[in-house]
Amino acid sequence: MNKIFFFFVNILAASRFMPKRIRCVIYKFLGIDSYSKTFGAECRITTKELSIGYGCYINRNVIFDNTARISIGNNVYIAMGVHFITEAHHVGTCCKRAGKNYANSIIVEDGCWIGADSIILPGVTIKHGTIIGAGSVVTHDTDSNALYCGNPAMKKKRIL
Fold first, then answer.
1. What phi, psi does 88 have (nearest 5°)?
2. Which of 89, 90, 128, 140 does the annotation list as catalytic?
């Protein structure tokens, strides 16, 4: 990652002393495609491969570990400590279990709510209106308008 990008995004703008509106302006100026006016402190963003829609709320300590693209729709609420991870490893041989790297995009559609300390893994699409319970690990695509909880996250019920 570019050292200048890292400094401005993950140190200067991420400071808890930085006003939220200025933080958002810095992100936009550095090429992050964000229409959110509320971006909490101490978030970490790995690359510019991040798109955030209108009316979103990104709480503090959210990590966008994005080697691949992360797309967040409109009116999405992301609680504190959520991790978006786009890179992983294939299973290797018994001599080295962490095999070759791969990266897959993450998509969060409109109207979703992702609970605190959840982890969203590579290649996942969280469909429209879905709630991810706090502490969940999302390993596969979700249905729309549903509640998912647990590790791995399982559908608990359909919601209106």
1. -150, -170
2. 89
